[in-house]
Design a protein that fits this description.
About 30% of the residues lie in helices and about 30% in strands. The protein is an alpha+beta fold. The strands form 2 sheets. The protein has an 8-stranded antiparallel beta sheet with strand order 1-2-8-7-6-5-4-3. The longest helix is centred in the middle third of the chain and has 19 residues, at about 120-140.
Length: about 260
Amino acid sequence: MSGRAKLQTVDERPALRLERRLKHAPEKVWHALTDPAELAHWFPAAVDVDLRAGGAIRFTFPGADDSTTGQVLTADPPREFTFVWNDDTLRWLLSPDGDGCLLEFTHTFGRGDPAIARLAAGRTATGWDVCLDTLDARLAGETHKPPENWHAPMASYVDEFGLGDGEVLEDGTIRFRRDLVWKPAGEVRVLLPDEPGWHVVHDPLEGTRVEFTEAREDDVAAQLARRHEQLDRLFAATHGVDLPDWPADRAEAMRKHYAERPTQG
């Protein structure tokens, strides 16, 4: 059974928390979480692990020429498996639940500016949803088909977590920062409006994001709502999706959203 991911803060770092109630004993799920042959069926990278506290864990993505190495922090079968991957901490906790078990998964983003790391929560939550649904299917001896449309679930989480919101800086400038996943910077630039204020940032570890800044207008709530819609359309366009204009009621709801924020006074 799946549930929506939640975005939290753990020790001042952004963290995603997901739960699954699985109809399988903790021992069976533990095997699927830690055995490289089983991980190959649902985890996003191939894994080679020395399953002990302090042991090395190596990740290789399909088609990649090299791998990244992390460290196992906890290996307590069949209860807890925690490791570090690219400075992020992934914690898998199993507890008995009736004739099955409860899987509690936490992904804590450990690298860089927390505000920038948080931007990736929408795509990361979507990815883990697919991984955990695939794990559930694998445990049941079934096959899970990943979504053909990745934009819709990612956009849903962006809205739910407030990751698309703009802000007003102390100097009166408005700013938006939007995660664009792993799109090549050149592909994004050709989609940008022909006006100043747009900037594309690409980092091999963080992915691609777009930043937009401009001077605050008198009706800043309407300005932010208008730019928010523009960023939504840009995000969709990078996935080959042409969004229609917002209906009037949504545009007004977004304007009210910004008008009610205390930082917009």
